[in-house]
Every structure is written in structure tokens, then in C-alpha cells.
Amino acid sequence: MTKYARDEFDRIPEASSRQGVHRVAAGPAKRKLGPILTVGVAALAVGLAAFLLFPKLGISTADPLAMFGRSASESTPGEAGAIPSTPEPSQSPAPLATTSESNPPSPTPQPTTPLVDKSQPVAVYNGTATAGLAGRIAGQIQTDGWTPDPVGNWGGLPQQTSVIYYNGEARKAAAAALGTLLKIPTLVDSAEFQQPLVVVLGPGYE
Predict the structure, then answer these.
(1) pLDDT-based confidence at 75, cuts 50/70/90?
(2) 81 neighbors 75 (Cβ within 8 angstroms)
(3) CA gap 198, 149 in Å, rounded
(4) How does DSSP classify residue 9?
(5) pTM for the whole structure
């Protein structure tokens, strides 16, 4: 018992659910099962549709990236997280080595010797003191195909060396051929003689 008089706050109904002045006894919480059931049914429907439709569309449900319609290797380079695929080096067949036959070296053209007319007569004169020298040289050039005419002793001015005279440029080749045969290098173009070719054997010739 309290020593204070009862007032209006002390008169509380017995069946009241209130306890104290400001508190109310909390009743059992009611759980809202409707949204949870709705989400579960929707997830089940999506899984069942994926299981039945994806194999018909050629999409393997075992590949999680197939849900997005392409694999990571097919991602464009600009997308975040895309793995750039390294192109394999092209292995083009190496060109076959072609062997070309080397052209054989062309033969060096040999200098052509001008044709020599050996049918023209050759006068042979002995300008030395050696008897019979003109006849011996006449026989030598005749053996080579020439025609010695005339053959005799030299009656002109004394010669310092052996000389072959030729009359005109057309007979220069024949005079050169005689000089090679007789080993007489001196050739003189002269119109003094009536013969086309004249061989004068000078001192020291043997």
C-alpha cells in the first residue's frame, strides 16, 4: 500500500493490454509472405524457361558467359574487361628459291685479220753484199703463197735497213703480212714504184 491517495491514473481496467502509463505490450509480429512467394515463383519460372529454351537456341547453359550471348574472347577491344585476342602469326609458305641458269660467258671476239690478196706480184731486191739473198727470200714468200716477180739486185740508193714498199692504202694489209713473214717492221707507202709490193733487203738482213 502507498501512503498517497489514489487518483485517476490508478484506475486502470483489469483487461487492458496496457502495462504502465506509456507502454503497450507488443503482439506477435506478422510476417508478410506474399512478396517472398512472388519472387520465388518468378525465379523458378525463369530457370525453367532457360533450361527448356537455351538448348534449342544452341546456347550451352554450362557456360555462364553464354547467358550474355558471347564469350569473353569475343568482347570488343573497347569494352571494359575484354580480353584482347592475340592473332596467330600468318604462316605463309616460304617462296621457293628459283635457280636460274647463269648465261655462259660470251666468247671474246677475236680480231679478224683482213683478207690478203697474195695473187699480186711481189718484187724482191737484194740491197746487201750477200749473194743469192734475193732468190732465197723469193722462194720463202712463194712457199707462203705469194708470187715473186721480179727478183734481182737493188739498183737504187743505198738502204740503211730492210723496207717493204706498198703502193696505195689498199695494199697496206698485204705489206703488213709480208713484214710479219719476213720479220721486216718498216713499211712505207710510196708511188715511186710501178709494182704494187716491193721488198728491199737492206744491210744486216739474213
Answers:
(1) very low
(2) yes
(3) 9
(4) G
(5) 0.46
